[in-house]
Amino acid sequence: MSETQRIDQWLWHARFFKTRGLATRLVASGKLRVDGAHVSKPAFALRPGMTLTFPQARRVRVIRVDNLAARRGPAPEARTLYTDLTPAPETEVPANPRYEGKGRPTKKDRRSMGLSGRPPLD
User: Other C-beta atoms within 10 Å of 6: how many?
Assistant: First the structure.
């Protein structure tokens, strides 16, 4: 195995994308960064120790490459190829914290919130 590997191929081998075509499309879109620099060539030579930053499923993934892969193996084998440096996701603030976890508001509560178009009850 050589010291480098195509970046689209490595992303597919590490199971970040279901197909190599999807990995190629992400790299070609210019949304991938390697050590802070934008990369838009799918044939970019990736080496162990590099840090990748890319969007995936409404999150930004930060990955450090530990090993290169000769094949697309099972998921446990793919996890040995990288270290995930992605920060923990922030908890989202609910739209209406007053009713968070309490279920649907009652009819009286909805009237008092003024959502029906009628004047609120006093």
Answer: 19
